[in-house]
Amino acid sequence: MNQEHDAGPGRSGVSRRNFLGGGLVAAAVTPLLTGQAEAKAAAAPTVDGVAQVTVRAAVNGSPVTVRVDPRATLLDTLRERLDLKGTKKGCDRGQCGACTVHVDGRRVLSCLTLAATTTGREVTTIEGLADGDRLHPMQQAFVEHDGLQCGFCTPGQIMSAVAMVDDEGGADSDDEIRERMSGNICRCSAYPRIVDAIRDAQQVMR
Ligand code: FES
Ligand code: FES
Fold first, then answer.
1. Which of 57, 89, 118, 129 has the most other CB atoms within 10 Å of its CB?
2. Are 78 and 137 members of one domain?
3. Reported confidence tier of residue 48, pLDDT bands at 50, 70, 90
4. 97 C-alpha to center of ligand 1: Å?
5. How large is the average pLDDT for residues 167-196?
6. Nearest atom (ligand 1) to Cα of 94
7. Within this chain, do residues 55 and 117 fall inside the same structural domain, yes or no?
8. Which of 128, 157, 188 is the last residue of a domain?
9. How confident is the model over 103-129, as pLDDT tens digits?
10. Whole-model pTM?
């Protein structure tokens, strides 16, 4: 089911319980599929006279067509155009990892990725990780180990950790987990529990 989105930022409340619990999956994707986003995007201006480009990608398993400024980042497109607010904007300059998503299964910093480069590719965000009501093992491990405090960094931590295990083969020691997760900063310093969660989750995933 395709929807075309012409413009327009949106707001939706996202609690950390929601994204961890998977309730956000339906909440975030449904507007894409029902045309609510299309309706609110009707006034899409051309920014600074720059013509928009059409991006067609699979986002969390659903085909999405969206017209964007060619300078738009994937992060802003996910959050402001597709209402997928689980992906966080921390530094917006590639330094914190809060914006980590998967493109074709690989972890990328969405603040440094142009949305226009994702045509024909599969984009997965934290909202697409759970299987219905069943949390991904990495999400479950973060819950069980209480691997978060404020939760702002957590979507990026989880997306990065999943790709680190699934796409890159995982880590063989706590030191290696810390090294390979070093691009994901936690201002609350929940690192010990994050490492515990990743260590446990990768036993299930490997
Ligand atoms: S928001 Fe992308 S790395 Fe910080
Ligand atoms: S839990 Fe607060 S920034 Fe990581």
1. 118
2. no
3. confident
4. 5
5. 98
6. 3
7. yes
8. 128
9. 999 999 999 999 999 999 999 999 999
10. 0.80
Name residues contacting ligand 1 (CB within 6 A).
89-92, 94-99, 109, 111
CA of 143 to the centre of ligand 2 (A): 14
Q: What angle do CA 14, 39, 112 make, to 5 degrees?
A: 55
Structure tokens given for 149: 């405090």
Q: Is residue 5 part of a domain?
A: no
Residues 53-93 have pLDDT tens digits of: 999 999 999 999 999 999 999 999 999 999 999 999 999 99
Residues with Cβ within 8 Å of residue 33, at least 6 apart in sequence: 1, 3, 62
* Tokens 């404020």 found at: 150
Residue closest by Cα to atom 4 of ligand 2? 186
Domain check: are 107 and 79 in the same one? yes
Closest listed ligand to the CA of 191 = 2
Domain boundary among 77, 101, 128: 128
The Cα 61–Cα 59 span in angstroms is: 5
Does 28 have pLDDT greater than 50? no
The answer to whether the beta carbons of residues 164 and 181 sit under 8 Å apart is yes
